[in-house]
Amino acid sequence: MLLRLNIIDIKDIQYSEKTMISKGKLLINRRELESLLQQDKRLKRVDVELARHGEKCRIVHVCDVVEPRAKIDGRGVNFPGVLGKKATAGQGTTCVLRGSAVVESLYTEVVEGPRDPNGEIIDMSGPAAELSPYGKTQNVVLLPRPADGVNQQEYRVAIKIAGLKAAAYLAEAGHEVKPDETVVYHLPSLTGEGHGGKALPKIVYIFQVLSTQHGVIPGEPVLYGLNVHKMLPTIIHPNEVLDGALICPFRAWGMETYSIQNHAVIRELLRKHGQELQFVGVILTVASDNEHENERSAVMAANLAKWVLQADGAVLTKSGGGAPEVPMALVAEQCEHLGIKTTLGLWHIPTDVKDIKGGVTMFNMAELNAIVSMGTPWQEVKLPPMERILGSRIDRPHEPSISGEMNRMLRWIRGAQDQLGSNSLTAVIH
Length: 430
Prior knowledge:
Layout: E1 2-9, E2 12-15, E3 20-22, E4 25-28, H1 30-37, E5 43-51, E6 57-59, E7 62-66, E8 69-71, E9 92-98, E10 100-105, E11 122-123, H2 127-131, E12 138-146, H3 152-171, E13 181-186, E14 202-211, E15 234-236, H4 238-242, H5 257-261, H6 264-272, E16 278-287, H7 291-308, E17 313-317, H8 325-337, E18 341-346, E19 349-350, E20 359-360, E21 371-373, E22 380-383, E23 388-390, E24 406-409
Parallel strand pairs: 1-9, 2-4, 6-23, 10-12, 14-16, 14-17, 17-18, 18-21
Antiparallel strand pairs: 1-13, 3-4, 5-12, 6-11, 7-10, 8-9, 15-16, 19-20, 22-24
Helix pairs in contact: 7-8
């Protein structure tokens, strides 16, 4: 399977009479894009705003980020199963607008309970912008409002689809533009001897894509347009993950569709394929909310890794907070019992959020002795005031205004930590 990414570097974004790319600028017909997104009857209105790197701008209630991408050779479908017919992702040529992003902001009027009332944010300048890749991209921000009578779950599905529509619409402007770079991902066969005769270790990546700890959203398009909450462990080609087959679930934590499209673990394994290792594929798993399903998934995933892909080693990551660590660890334990060496990547969840040094793992298995820490999400960062707020802001009495100076936990800065391997932070105890 061969995937070619034609990458166009975007250095600025502006409104224009025509959506096009000129000398590194993404020019957008605002009215045309809004009209396209408002065709979804679940949405009353969709406002499109621009947020540029370096502006004193804060985006609130961020629910996902998507990199603009579109197929350009007639051989594929943009986000297959969601925007078009079900077709195989991961092959052909895809246009990528690197340096830009579509940001989805959830409309809400009231937030109950102790959670942060303005949700996850993106700052376009200051410390938060340095921590997150989305503070450095040129962002097209979608502000969709639900139509009357549309429930919260239907609205959230509609937001996801709007983000994908906008991403494809923008990237289609690059069809005739000469790319700044072309990247090719080619694995002739996941189980074949595609390594030039070298005796290389066979490595599988086991990707936990969803945790059902906090429920699921019916009808959410996650894998080829369908939900995955009852999915059994499934083998997928790594190119498919990078090319739109997999969309970040609404309730995922520590990942976005953008980070899946640019999956750091998969890209690194592809880079080392044929040199240091033989990358034999990806196994998708789900962290369930009951012991029986997690144990079944662990046995099945390990058996696929051992007896189908013949893996010598496995890299595992999770989706979500503390609870999903246990299903991930159960899979790793079963792999170790079958002779597959495992490495786990995760951020640590403290037993007390006030004790950021108290990060622990939720499992204790002697075989699992290779763990890569991605830090803890409860570290606080002081953020400066912003002049412009995008999204439905909520200011509570006796609490700092969302536009003012504040202390913000990493957990509430979108992209500051990435459970797929690209974050720049780790945990160190002195």
